[in-house]
Amino acid sequence: MESPSAGGRRRRHGRRARPSRRRPLLCAALVCVTVVGGTAAGTAYVRARGSAGPGAVGSAASASPSASASGRASVETVTDQAADRTALLAGAMKSVAPEDGATVSVAVLDLGSGQSAVYGDGTFDTASIVKVDILAALLLQAQDAGRRLTAQERTYATAMIEDSDNDSASALWRIVGGADGLDAANRRFGLADTSGGDGALWGLTRTTAADQLALLKQVFGDDSDSELSTASRTYLQGLMGRIAEDQRWGVSAAADGSAWALKNGWLPRSTTGLWVVNSIGRVTADGDDYLVAALSQGNATKEKGISLVEGAARAAVSVFAGGT
User: Where do the segments described as Disordered lie (predicted)?
Assistant: First the structure.
């Protein structure tokens, strides 16, 4: 189910602008290519994050020539690997042709290697994938308050994630503080380009595939990656692994059998009659685990949107699976 009020206007006047807070993924390869009606144009860029110990603060002039050369070589190796993934993903997505007017973006992270790639830089309505973000925000707020979720909150959470129940989502949206509460949590989660929907319109939260990948790292990462506790992550992962049977589509198309945990979103826009169809989650393929976020908009039907995000998910995982 999707937000029944999601076709309304979403502009929230007077909201403060948030500075960009990008937290790059380890060895991330990000390719910005927007695909509309089967055409592609764009630019590739690479970001890598190193680690620094307590002794790393000091003058750059103190580094030895050999250390500097070694560092440059390491960065070049990471950059080369990232660029390879970027090129492979761009090539794989050539087989995924959106219909005229439709747009797709996909992001993938290989949990084993830490490498990732993103195809498409558009911003999309979330529809019901925001329900993962709502629950993550609630869990973070509960952690901060030193409390567990109440029985009622857990009932809402189960219905919201497993059955995509809208009334439960609306109840938890109010509990977390609506867009302000969601945005506050997302600043801590590292989602730089996600903004909560107006008023009660949680389904019109705006996001990117790269931000959804960052959110998935909060849910499926470890203590070094996530603001969420082990208990919170385990709880949310469990709900995403028990999705209602009629909603078991999307990124799961890239998985081996039932080796997945996901949340889907689908929404016909009242202004255009076109469909937003999104899917995010973890999949296992050839024994390896991947996080995948596939977003689309401008689809003539829900079925065409599902086909598009499933094709994008398969293409994204193929970049890493099978030793490519």
Answer: 1-20, 56-77
Cβ(98)–Cβ(36) under 8 Å?
A: yes
Domain residue spans in the chain?
A: 28-49+76-323
The predicted model gives 23-48 an average pLDDT of 35
Decide if pLDDT at 231 tops 70: yes
Q: Which fold is adopted by the domain 28-49+76-323?
A: Beta-lactamase (3.40.710)
What is the C-alpha separation between 174 and 277, in angstroms, rounded?
24
**What's the pLDDT at 58?**
34
Indicate the burial class of 116 (C-beta count within 10 angstroms; 0-12, 13-18, 19 or more): buried
- Residue carrying structure tokens 């901060």: 144
Give the pLDDT confidence score for residue 72 in this predicted structure: 55
Q: Give the CA count within 13 Å in the CB-facing half-sphere of 58.
A: 8
DSSP class per residue in 165-209? -HHHHHHHHHHHTHHHHHHHHHHHHT-SS-BPPSTT-GGG-EE-H
